[in-house]
Amino acid sequence: MTGLTAEHVVDGRTPQTPALAPDGRRVAYVLAPASRRGGHANTEVWLLDGTARRITADTATESQPRWSADALFFLSDRAHRGRPQLHRFTAGTVTAVTSWGAGILDHLPLADPDLVALLAEDEPTERPGDVIVVGEREPRARLRLLDLRTNRITTPDVFPDRHVVGLRQRPDGGPLAVLTQASADYDYGPRTGRLHLFDPVTGVAEELGPVGADAHSLAWWPAEDGWHIGYVALTPPVLHAGTAVFDLSLTSGSRTNRTAGLPMCPTELCQTGTAPLLLCADGLTTVVSRLDPAGLTTLLHHPGRLDALTATPDGARIAVLATTRYRLADVHLGPPTGPLDRVTDTHPELNGIPLGTQQPLTYHAADGLALDGLLVLPPGHTAADGPFPLVTIAHGGPYDRYADHLQLSWAPSAQWLATAGHAVFLPNPRGGKGHGHDFAARVAGRVGQEEWTDILTGIDLLVTRGIADPDRLGIAGWSHGGFLAAWAVGQTGRFRAALVGAGVTDWGMLAATGENGQFEAALGGSTGWSGPGPHPHDAVSPISFAGRIRTPVLILHGADDPNVPLGQAVYLHRALRHFGAEHEFVIYPREGHRIQERHHQLDLLHRTRAWFDRWLRS
């Protein structure tokens, strides 16, 4: 029996975006590698109809499988890498049906079997020189219609100067609900959403008004007073967290927050012919519910995480990506009330490999707030074998969570460190999802405050129980988790080692340069243009406390990260160098916020283990 290796992590493949056929018997899905070799991610579309088989043989990036009544459509850039086109699979044959110069961004087969709605930017034109004028000629996805009888694409004259981000047709084949934004810019666009109707027969569009920030996941359903449209969006006025399901009655025009006060967090709506289905993050678990007129009806409680929900038109069967405590994601199929049967086995390389023992952890914060998280112990060990060296890994977001599923990835992950002999604490402090809107909204302008004491309380609990060795504590995280790791070592000397991955060190600079600037400003509490200062964001930025850091710090960052730009890591590196603090600074060329190239993932995994082994083993 072999142990877990870095190659097990980076050479695996993961299913994505399952699409359940209307007959409920066939499921298409994308199979994606965990790492990338070369400049493109080579993914595959697979079809499960009794047995799983790949339906193409090309080297390409393939994505977004969607069914019409009698065919499967998907995107593939097999003809021109980086410019996906729409393809149709029927009767065992794959045919390209578009050759749009800018490529196709998204698609939706319509009730009319001869029509497909497309999202695509305008065809490329010659540009004078390479000068970029911000605000001019910005790429925007526009709604287009493909006639399969002629393969001709037309562009309705609707939603001028808007960027289309979502489509859903009424279940009876009527109009489309369309979500648009003022821009494709991540900082500005998600705050400018509007909802529209579009009739593909008449070409007439209707304005339905603004929607909440980051609106997505459209769904229609019939009610006694006529048709309703729902979507998931951030709950005003909080800009960074707290999602809800919003319900628009087309008859009365009234808008309702259907999940107000819910102690869970909606993540996805799934349209059926009647009441839509809803996924909710519920603590460490996931709930499948039905959005009935009287409220939510719980159908299934999954002890782990569910994503990418798809259903038959009658809602009688669903397909979903499900993860459990000791299994990575696989496609599961069944009724929405369960049981859900695993119908793929995409991670055979992990079969028989000893994994760390994972268990839920519940406790209360200093102010009495109920909290949860996970504890992962080295394989074959129990808490009675402690105390262990303990690495705490804070999650990103902060509007994210640890669910009770297998914690194994290229980023600092519990199983990777547990199989090296470390105990790992995965806390879910306030600010994350899984406990309702109020829980999520508690960190606005207060990052690093109560959320940090929530984490410390959990660490103290593990020390008190004899699980964690107080003299061998480490802290790590990626993105917002990287911020918390950088914050931790500026607040206390308790940690013997830290890993700051793609971490925030200055909230003001992030609001000015990150792709989600205004969302970051809501977290940090201010921007650099909020007057001469002092600014609230300075008091919650790790860089302000760099002079206190005595803990050895490993800084890891992608060179081309648009979310948390490299300058954040450079700032921390220069400060630590100035103060003479021991640290190591690693930059991964060509990488964004997620590290994707295989040799970079391998380096990160080996470097992570070596760092904590070095400082926590002695």
UniProtKB/TrEMBL annotation:
The keyword Ribonucleoprotein does not apply. Pfam families: PD40, Peptidase_S9. It comes from the Bacteria. It comes from Actinoplanes palleronii. This is Peptidase S9 prolyl oligopeptidase catalytic domain-containing protein. Residues 1-21 are annotated as: Disordered. Keywords: Hydrolase, Protease, Serine protease. InterPro entries: 6-blade_b-propeller_TolB-like, AB_hydrolase_fold, Peptidase_S9_cat, WD40. Residues 413-617 form the Peptidase S9 prolyl oligopeptidase catalytic domain.
